[in-house]
Amino acid sequence: MTIRLVVSVETKAGLGERQVQAFAELAPLVRAESGCLQYDLHRVVGTEDEFVILEHWESAEALAGHDDAPHMVEADAANKQFRAGPARVLIIEGAAVR
Questions:
Q1: Do residues 5 and 92 lie in contact, with contact meaning Cβ atoms separated by under 8 Å?
Q2: Is residue 52 within 8 Å of residue 44, measured between CB atoms?
Q3: pLDDT digit string, tens, across residues 35-94
Q4: Among 87, 74, 84, 76, which Cα is nearest to 15's?
């Protein structure tokens, strides 16, 4: 079964572009990971400093490998410079609710 995540992040006031830049550098590495089906950043409408990251992984094992990847450990440390707080991670069901 695939795993889908919605990750909500907020940056410190005025630092939204730092999030965009950091994601642009990180995204190619993540998308090249085994099991990554989607890894996209979206800005929340009407804000400069709120974002969601949409992730889709082939399996729980692929997601676990992503979390432990050296570039993710490095990014988590660097994000503290511009993030307002920890990300909120929601694991969602793969099928849309009808």
A1: yes
A2: yes
A3: 999 999 999 999 999 999 999 999 999 999 999 999 999 999 999 999 999 999 999 986
A4: 84
Question: What stretch of H or E contains 6?
Answer: strand 3-10
**The tokens of 32 are what?**
């090249």
Tens of pLDDT, residue by residue over 60-74, are 999 999 999 999 999
Structure token pair of residue 41: 């950043």
Whole-number Å distance between alpha carbons of 74 and 58: 23
Nearest Cα neighbor of 27 from 71, 58, 92 is 71
- Choose among 64, 68, 39: nearest CA to 54: 39
